Each structure stands twice: as structure tokens, then as C-alpha cells.
Amino acid sequence: MRLRTNQNKLKIEHSIIDGLRPVLDRLVASDEIRSVIPGVIRMVRDAKGTVKIRVTVPVQNGWKAIALAAGARQELFISTALDQAAVEKLIAAALED
Questions:
Q1: Positive or negative, the Cα torsion across 47, 51, 55, 59?
Q2: Nearest-CA neighbor of 92 among 17, 27, 20, 8?
Q3: Which of 95, 51, 97, 91 is CA-nearest to residue 70?
Q4: If you write DSSP's letter for every residue of 23-57 in order, what string do you get?
Q5: CB-CB contact of 19 with 70 (8 Å)
Q6: What is the pLDDT of residues 9-25, one digit of tens each?
Q7: How much is the average pLDDT of 39-65?
Q8: Mean pLDDT score across all residues of the chain
Q9: N or C: which end of the chain has fewer CB within 10 A?
Q10: What percent of the chain is predicted at pLDDT more than 70?
Q11: Number of Cβ within a 10 Å radius of residue 4
């Protein structure tokens, strides 16, 4: 299966929750981010309002994060060499724009 990509950094295998795509587009514009792979979407009750992204655990090549919006949560796998604080700073900047 061929993945649809944006700048060869945003790999789309699944659909993306409402409002998250523009944030991810701004996030992958950073040179420090190698790629972002959105994962499985699950419905949750506490995901109301604007998009929120929380970095959760380190993975082999970067960080796993959870995006919350529109009554759903989506896993995000962020491939980068940055530490957690730097990734959270880039995410905060992407959410503000």
C-alpha cells in the first residue's frame, strides 16, 4: 500500500480527526521532525473543544502523542531526535498558529 504524504513527512494511513490536519501540517514544517504518522482513532467523551495534543511516551524513533478533538482521540507517532520538552514546544507552536 502506498502512503499519501505531505512533504514526505506526514504519512496518512488512516483518517484524521477534525481540526488536526492543519496542526500536523504546521508541525511537519519543522526541520527537526522527520515524520508524523497518525494512528488509530477512538471515540472518547472528554475530547471537546479545540485540538489538544499531549506527548505520552518515548518510542524507538521518537515520541508517541495523543491528540484529542471532536469527541475522539488519535494516536500520533512523531519521529524525531528531540527530547520531550522540545517536542512539546514545537507542538504548542503548531497549535497556536
A1: positive
A2: 27
A3: 51
A4: HHHHHHTSTTEEEEEEEEEEE-SS--SS-EEEEEE
A5: yes
A6: 888 777 899 889 999 99
A7: 92
A8: 89
A9: N
A10: 92
A11: 8
* Total length of the chain: 97
* Look-up of cell digits 505531505: 6
The three cell numbers of residue 53 are 495534543
pLDDT at 75 over 80: yes
Distance (Å, whole) CA 43 – CA 12: 19
Cα three-residue angle 86-31-81, rounded to 5 degrees: 50
Count CA atoms closer than 13 A to 89's CA, side-chain side.
7
Domain extent listing, the chain = 4-96
